[in-house]
Write the structure tokens for this entry.
Amino acid sequence: MLIRSLLVLTILQLTVANVQFTSPAAGTTLTAGKPITAKWKDSGDGTALTDLTTYTLFLCAGGNDDASFINLAPINANGQFSTGNEASATVAATLGGNDKNAYFLKMQSVGPKGTQLINYSDRFSISGMTGTFPPNVQAGIAKVSGTDGPAATNQEAPAAGAGGAQGEEAVAYTAQTGLIKYAPMQTPPGTKITAQRPTPRYPTSSVRIAKTFLPPPKQTTTMTASQTNKPIQSRPFQASAGGIDASG
């Protein structure tokens, strides 16, 4: 029974691996401060590359499971498959260390039906990096042998924004600690006003006023989920004698 389950899992992973990275080559060493160029082709399995629409491409570092690697920086935050099978970007040398085969690429692509596909490249090194990795990432790197990146995961899952926040966007913005933060996309308003009494969408929160200069943020960017076409429940616009009522 176990052998049969493993066989089924292997077949599923093979049939959904639609993006195959051809560059950077497995085990190669890049140089900090120079562009990282990613190239890919259709793997011949699963969804055809021509059926994919958009993608986001990240430089990642760490181990091979979700808890041990992080997205360091976007190579292309708003990629279009129609523009070709190549993307390039230069990242800051302070983002990570010089560990051998610590780095790999992660592509989240979207198909015509809003499905999200996730593929990873082989591992490579970047010399001249001046930063350090978080403890969990460093521990993940230490467990890696060879140049294989993480296995494809969450294949054919609904894309974030297609029916509510999912994946990284589902974690509260203030609770996210990685170098890249994720935000859900605001849904478009409805076409009719049906609510009669305005109510706050969220409870009130405390405010702390900074009395000294705050340290610079560690995050490099914020990624926003794809827009959903599902309208939110409408609420009436309220104005009082003193101006606009912003209680909602």
Observations:
- The radius of gyration is 21 Å.
- Helices lie at 2-16, 135-142.
